[in-house]
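step 3/5: co-fold with adenosine-5'-diphosphate
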Amino acid sequence: MAASLLIEDVDAAYGAVRALDGVSLKVATGETVALLGTNGNGKTTLMRCILGLLRPTRGRIIATIDGQTTDLIGRSPEDIVNLGIALVPEGRRLFPRLSVEENLLLGAYRRAARAAIPRNLEFCYDAFPRLKERRAQPVGSMSGGEQQMVALGRAVMCAPKILLVDEPSVGLAPILVARTIEKIAELKEKLGLTVLMAEQNFHQAIRIADRGYVLVHGRVEFQGDSPAALGDSDLVRKFYLGL
Ligand SMILES: Nc1ncnc2c1ncn2[C@@H]1O[C@H](COP(=O)(O)OP(=O)(O)O)[C@@H](O)[C@H]1O
Ligand SMILES: [Mg+2]
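step 4/5: write tokens
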């Protein structure tokens, strides 16, 4: 099952604020690619452009999924989700008063996913046993780490081929960050996903990333073809590692 993303020369803006400037990157089938950058450098904006939530002012965003190539620009988020692309948004965006299971089921609105609800729900509960125990609990009463699991589970419920994860570490204690990152790697392996993950937490991101890009003021300033190459970059050393 092939699923890849190709982003070419994308510009995006919020009114007069330029948020992306000629961004090009790719994610090949089965890769986990890190999109690194500190606050306000355009990571979320790129995720929103891929999912059709914000229309780029220039460039192309091409997804190839199971042999079918589609230009995503101009398509609705619903169409894009239906193609098999899911986003775990920054800040999780769950429904706090709804139960774990209700939140998970809300992920399954994709046509193909509806038919597979029992199987995907079972998969979610296998991957996150804690969510099964807490299936009836309102999500708002759960810990940050558990909520991140619900957000990941909700994305899995739409049976994606390409998973976009926006800053999974935000607001979590270090031990939970590590666990969340490991869960993303586990889901990727089990479901055969292609993953693009935005992160500020460089050390955690490179534990599971095959390679990565560093965004600075909306531009790709560095591209590292391996975790080691990223760690060796002067830019990463300066901004992330304080060296
Ligand atoms: N809704 C918005 N309206 C205006 N400017 C925005 C909006 N969202 C983000 N920006 C600006 O776009 C830039 C990139 O933001 P963002 O993509 O959220 O960065 P990151 O996810 O890397 O923290 C920042 O300068 C930010 O202030
Ligand atoms: Mg962001």
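step 5/5: annotate
The chain has one domain: 3-239.
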